[in-house]
Design brief:
73% of the residues lie in helices and 0% in strands. The protein is an all-alpha fold. The chain has 4 helices and no strands. The chain is rod-shaped, with a radius of gyration of 34 Å. The two termini are 44 Å apart.
C-alpha cells in the first residue's frame, strides 16, 4: 500500500493537450519535457485553459486513486486469505489434538469396563484421568488460540482502516506552454 501512495506523490506531469484539443499521452508529454528549450516571455493562463488543466488533473487523480483502491483490495484479499488459511490450520491442529484425546479417553473407558481384575481397572482409570487432564488443558488452549486468531483478524482490519484514511492534495507547481519550431 505504501508503494501506491508513493506513486501518487510522484505524479509530476498532467495530461497536456495541443491547441487543437488533441490530448497527448504520458510518453509524448515526457518527451516534450526532455527536449531542449529556452525560456520565453511569461504567458498568462486563460481561465478556460486553467479550468481544463484543473479538470484534467482531477480526472487523473481519480483514475490513480481508483487504481490504488483496486490494488489495495487485491492486497487485502490476499492477506485475509493467508490469515484465514493460517487460522484454519491452527484451529484444525488444535481440534485434532482434542479429538485424539477424546478417542483415547473413550478407548481407555472401554478397556476399563472390559478389564478382568480390579488392579487393571484402577490402572486404566488413572490413565483415563491423565487423558482427561490433558483434554482439560488442551480445551482452554484451543479457546485462547481462537480468540488470538480473531484478534489478529481484527488488528488487520484496523490497520487497513487506518491506511485507507488518505489525504490527497493537488498542487500546481508550474504550467508550461510550448511551441515547436
Amino acid at each position: 500500500m505504501a508503494h501506491d501512495l508513493e506513486k501518487l506523490k510522484a505524479i509530476s506531469v498532467r495530461q497536456p493537450w495541443a491547441d487543437d484539443g488533441q490530448v497527448l499521452d504520458e510518453v509524448q508529454s515526457r518527451r516534450l519535457l526532455d527536449c531542449g528549450s529556452t525560456i520565453g516571455s511569461k504567458v498568462r493562463v486563460t481561465p478556460d485553459i486553467d479550468f481544463q488543466l484543473s479538470e484534467s488533473m482531477t480526472s487523473e487523480q481519480s483514475r490513480i486513486l481508483q487504481h490504488i483502491a483496486e490494488n489495495n483490495g487485491r492486497w487485502f484479499d490476499t492477506e485475509m486469505d493467508k490469515l484465514d488459511r493460517w487460522a484454519d490450520d491452527r484451529r484444525q491442529s488444535l481440534k485434532s489434538e482434542l479429538e485424539t484425546l477424546e478417542v483415547e479417553i473413550k478407548d481407555a473407558k472401554k478397556a476399563a469396563r472390559n478389564a478382568a481384575t480390579l488392579p487393571e481397572k484402577l490402572e486404566l482409570q488413572r490413565k483415563i484421568r491423565q487423558f482427561e487432564s490433558k483434554y482439560d488443558e488442551a480445551l482452554p488452549r484451543y479457546k485462547v488460540a481462537a480468540r488470538e486468531i480473531d484478534s489478529q483478524k481484527e488488528n488487520l482490519l484496523d490497520d487497513v482502516s487506518k491506511k485507507l484514511s488518505q489525504r490527497t492534495e493537488l498542487v500546481t507547481l508550474f504550467t508550461v506552454r510550448w511551441r515547436l519550431i
